[in-house]
Amino acid sequence: MKLSKIDLSNVLAVGHSNGQLGLLIDRGECLEFIEIAAPEAAMHGLHMVDFIANTDSTELSGGIELTEIAPADEPIAMMPVDSAMAALLTLWCIM
Q: Using CA of residue 54, residue 55, residue 56, residue 62, what is the dihedral sign?
């Protein structure tokens, strides 16, 4: 297996809906939200990586049970935002 170093420190949040993986990215002076086509398994994989990376290795020594990293039964709904500042940030990041 060949390993590649990755840096996800600018990814602030992820979500998945209707075949789209949503990523909230810190671009320094602005935040950018992008969506890319991806199966729901991509979101589950990211949750697994987050769980493994943020769990003490001694706790992982017995193996990882899928129930430990299963997604929540109920998704957290995002609230619509009607904000001139958010609209300006989005436009500024696109330019």
A: negative
Over pLDDT 70: what percentage of the chain? 63
33-45 pLDDT tens trace? 999 999 989 998 8
The residues, ordered by sequence, that sit 6+ positions from 65 with a Cβ below 8 Å of its Cβ are none
SS (H, E, C) the chain: CCCCCCCCCCEEEEEEECCEEEEEEECCCCEEEEEEECCHHHHHHHHHHHHHHCCCHHHHCCCCCHHHCCCCCCCCCCCCCCCHHHHHHHHHHHC
Mean pLDDT for the stretch of residues 8-35: 92
